Each structure stands twice: as structure tokens, then as C-alpha cells.
Amino acid sequence: MSVYDVAIIGGGPSGLAAAAYTAGFQLQPVLIAPTFGGKASYDFRLNGQHYPTPIWGLETVRLFETHVRNQMIAHYADEVAKVQRTANREFTIELATGAPVQARTVIIATGAKPQRLYIPGEQEYWGRGVSFSALSHAALFRGRDVVVVGNGERTQVAILKLAHLAHHVYWISTTTHEATMARLRQFENHPKVTPLFGWELQRILGGDCVTAVEIGTDYTTRQLTADGVFVELGLIPNIEFARGLVEFNAETGHIPVNQRCETALPGLFAAGDVTDVYAEQITVAIGEGVKAAISAWEYLVTVPK
Fold first, then answer.
1. Phi/psi at 14 (5° precision)
2. Rounded distance, CA 227 to CA 231, Å?
3. Splitting the chain (305 residues) into consecutive groups of 10 residues, what average pLDDT does each group show?
4. DSSP state of 53
5. DSSP assignment of 65-108, as one string?
6. CA distance 152 to 82
7. 3-class state of residue 38 by DSSP
8. Is residue 47 within 8 Å of 70, Cβ to Cβ?
């Protein structure tokens, strides 16, 4: 069985950038991902827009994808079931359907998926008014009515960003615990924010894009007119296959890395939204993938085979 210099798990912006750069360093990489593109594959549109909103960094991601294909970098279109460290300090990557892959180093770039509500309309209007990242899409809602769902730090950040841009912000949260109430105090007198504690978002309505939501309590339901819904419940990193290799961040579940994208395990690197320094931006993910590639190359040239 051949041993690759670096196995890159994930075909999104970080993974593609890492694959292109490691190949450019004259290493022998292998890219393991069912598909290419990741978050760059999604566009976003609102009512009144004739074209989807441009995605910053999309063209760069496509250039990396073309480079990976043209360079004929080894690619397994499969899911990873488990990554294990071998006795000789290399890695065995067990695939869901294929034979295991051996590599001297591993870069994890599998991203994160949003926590969802699983209500009618959420999946249907994803990218057509429904967003899971105010950091990415808040600027598109200038002068519009929006709904924000959640009660954590991400929710607070979303409301802070949207309160300065949107026409009005409806904040929906079923919890009334002390920490949430403390965060609420900075918004309770804001003229553009209406807190709706004790209500649940039950359904998202619309035509081509979101136009309204249905909310309810144990006793009643009502509709709110809105152009968008931000579900800010958090991100779930796609890293179950790495459990046991390194300790995950106790609060968020992400992989801790330093400024060089190094994990606590020598030879194991991580980049993008799977790490605890994620920024939910394609351009940041690309840069992190490049950093991980550089760190992997430096590790390989200093550690004897």
C-alpha cells in the first residue's frame, strides 16, 4: 500500500486550497471528499433580487478546484469513517466504502454544519431568505424585516449586526434563563428590536423567497411579515471520525489549533470552520487551508521518514 505525504479530508475551500498548495510543494497529497466546493456551492437570494448575491471567494475556490483536477491529484470520493495514528507515527484513514488510506500527515478540513430547527419551510427556503450565519448575510438585509432565532452568543452577535441594518428585528427565544435575560437588557429598549420570549418559530412561509413566519406559544399563534430568518443555534463541526485523536473544544466541540493550524497531535492539522478559530467566511477558510499546507510541508521536511 502506498503512503501519501498528506491526506486532506474535505473538499471545501480549505481542503481544495490545501490540496493545491501541497501539490505545489512537490508533496504527494490525496484528497478525500465526496464532493468539491463546500459552502461555496450555495448562493443566496431575497425577494426583489433578480440575481443571487455574489459569494466572496467563489472564483478562487473554483480556480483551486480546476487546479486540483488538472494536476490529477489523487482523489477518493468517499466519506471518512475513522482516522487513527499508527505505531510508526503515520495515519490510517478508514473510508466508509473503500480500502484504508495511509498518510504521513493529515489535514482535516471538513467544515461544520448548522444546528437546525427542522420545521416546515426551513430546508425549502435555505438560501432564499433562510440563513444560518448573520456574519455572512446580515449586510443583505438593509431596510428589511428579519427574524432571529436563538439564545446564545451567535444570536447576540446577529442581533447587534442586524439592528443597525434591518428595518426591524424580531428575536425569538423559548428560554428565559438568567444568562439570556442579561443579554436581552441591551436590546429591550432598542427601537428596532422586538424580543419575543416564550414563542417558538413553527413555520417559514413564502413564494420564491421568504415572506413571513408563523410563531406560536402553548395558547396561540400569529404571523410576522419578514424577508429573512436567521437560525443562530450554533455550528456542529464534522469531526466524529477524529474522536480520540485529539481533545475537542469543551464548549463548542471544534478542533483546537494554534496560529499555524497545528493540533496537539504532531502531524495532524486542521483548517476552516472545523477548528475553534472559524470565521464562517470562504476567504478565511482558503487562507487557513494554505497555512495548514505550509505547516504540513514544514513538518514533513523536518521529520525523517
1. -65, -45
2. 14
3. 92 94 95 84 74 66 87 93 93 93 97 94 94 89 95 85 94 69 71 90 96 94 96 91 91 92 96 87 91 97 80
4. B
5. HHHHHHTT-EEE-S-EEEEEE-TTS-EEEEESSS--EEEEEEEE
6. 31
7. helix
8. no
